[in-house]
C-alpha cells in the first residue's frame, strides 16, 4: 500500500447547471465563466420512511479557453462533470466593514455528460 504524505485539493462533481453560465472578459481580455452546479445527496427519511434527497449548490469558475467553451456550450439543465480545486476568497465588505468569505470550485476540466462538445480541459488550449 502506498503512503501519501502531502496534501491534496481536488474536487470532482457531477451535477446540472441551475442557470445559463455568466461569461465576461476581465483584465487584458481574459475570459471568465461562472455557473452554479446542483448536486444531490441523501437526506433524512420523510414521514413514510422514504429517503429524501437534498440539493447542494456549488459555484464553479472557469478561466481562459475553458471559460469560452463553457460559455458557448453550457446552458441551464445541462449535466456536467467538473474537476478542479477548492478556492476561498476573503475580503472586507465596504459597507459593513465585516470580513466576508466565498468558497467555490476553480475548474480545470469540464466534461459534458449529456451530448454536445465533449471533454474540455486547459490542456486542450494548444
TrEMBL record:
GO cellular component, one term: nucleoid
Protein's name according to its UniProt entry: Single-stranded DNA-binding protein
Biological source species: Chloroflexus islandicus
Quaternary structure, from the entry: Homotetramer.
Species lineage: Bacteria, Bacillati, Chloroflexota, Chloroflexia, Chloroflexales
Keywords tagged on the record: DNA-binding
Organism domain of life: Bacteria
Gene Ontology molecular-function annotations: single-stranded DNA binding
CDD domains, A to Z: SSB_OBF (cd04496)
Keyword set includes Cell membrane: no
Any GO BP annotation: DNA replication
Classification via Pfam families: SSB
